[in-house]
Amino acid sequence: MKIGTTDLGERPVMLAPMEDVTDIGFRLLCKRYGAKMVYTEFVSAEALVRDVKSTVKKLTISDEERPVGIQIYGRDTDAMIEAAKIVEQAGPDVIDINFGCPVKKVAGKGAGAGMLQNIPKMLDITSHIVDAVRLPVTVKTRLGWNSEQLIITSLAEQLQQCGIRALTIHGRTRAQMYTGRADWTLIGEVKRNPRITIPIIGNGDIHSLDEADTAFDRYGVDGVMIGRATFGCPWIFSRREPSLDEKIDVLKEQLLINVERIDEYRGILHTRRHLAASPVFKGIPNFRATRIEMLRAESVAQLTEILERCRELLKNG
Phi first, then psi: what are they for 183, rounded to 5°? Predict the structure, then answer.
């Protein structure tokens, strides 16, 4: 599978862009374990144009994580064009447009999945960005706004005509948010459309490489993107199951990377979500109390002590 000149190999499995999740430390860990492509947290076009410091920081990428995409979102055409030009200067391999985020603060303002209610605007933004930059432009979106407006099969052709180089489809509508099961049948229908020539990447409810393999076999997609199942589990991209010690050590490494990259307080905030959601701890009886303790920890020493305690609990059964 290729996006522009970037060759991702056969049946690539990728890390989805996620706000407050796919920071550079986590992306590097996922890359280490086999993610064929990683994406930054999504970036607000308006904030980027206004040169908001915290937003500009999200553009920081490293050669070790390539190929890497930077994803932008917004509802104003001029701001999106300008943001794409700024992103291009950061040097990613791909510029991705977010037309899929369902959360109210994004979609409710007409951006992200909100664009599924204004297809002419979506296509206008897409075509203008494609014309404004030299890098490959891709799009990530959903099946439609709700179950009565499943428009992805026709929308895919329209987006392709705008000049995008790949399309990622999350198998839910905006109305579903993240509830229910992702429906891959329409993703497969898009892929089987003989008029579609760009790579089609499927996303939604993939929890392992075995499930990714099933998606490739059953729906014929060119790539698979994994999102929430990566929380606290960067090794999900590996065919080799790491040992318990390796998993705990990786989570500790992620904590230290984030603290060094930002500061202790915010680095811990960035890491706690991963720790609390990690499948590593499922074997601990009555883990809820420990999970709460993780979410309340305010120092590296506290979190490290909790992790070591969990290690011992898991080892001793």
Answer: -100, 110
How many Cβ atoms from other residues are within 10 Å of residue 19's Cβ? 17
The pTM of the whole model exceeds 0.90: yes
241 Cβ neighbours under 8 A, 6+ residues apart = 235
Q: Helices in 163-299 by DSSP H: which ranges?
A: 185-192, 209-219, 244-261, 264-277, 287-296
Which of helix, strand or coil describes residue 214? helix
Amino acid, res. 125 = I
15 Cβ partners below 8 Å, 6+ apart? Answer: 22, 27, 30, 35, 37, 38, 39, 225, 226, 230, 237
User: Is 153 in contact with 145 (CB distance < 8 Å)?
Assistant: no
The backbone region for 242, taken as left when phi is positive above 0, alpha when psi lies in -120 to 50, beta otherwise, is beta
User: What are 239's two structure tokens?
Assistant: 């065919």
Taken in order 228, 234, 237, 240, the sign of the CA dihedral is negative
Look at the alpha carbons of 265, 270, 272, 275 in this order and tell me if their dihedral is positive or negative: negative
- What does the alpha-carbon distance between residue 161 and residue 154 come to, in Å, rounded to a whole number? 11
Q: Which DSSP category does 150 fall into? A: B
In 3D space, the residue among 191, 215, 270, 219 whose CA is nearest the CA of residue 20 turns out to be 270
Helix or strand (DSSP H, E) at 130: helix 119-132
What are the DSSP calls for 151-199, one per residue? -HHHHHHHHHHHT-SEEEEESS-TTTTT-S----HHHHHHHH-TT--S-
253-302 pLDDT, tens digit per residue, is 999 998 998 889 888 988 888 888 899 998 888 888 888 998 899 899 99
Residue 272, classed as helix, strand or coil, is helix
Which residue shows structure tokens 């369902």? 102
Residues carrying an active site annotation: 101
Which tens digits make up the pLDDT trace of 108-148?
Answer: 899 999 999 999 999 999 999 999 999 999 999 999 999 99
Which backbone phi and psi does 170 adopt, to 5 degrees? -85, 130
Query: Residue 34 region, left (φ>0) first, then alpha (ψ -120 to 50), else beta?
Result: left
Tens digits of per-residue pLDDT, 11-53?
A: 999 999 998 899 888 999 999 999 999 999 999 999 999 999 9
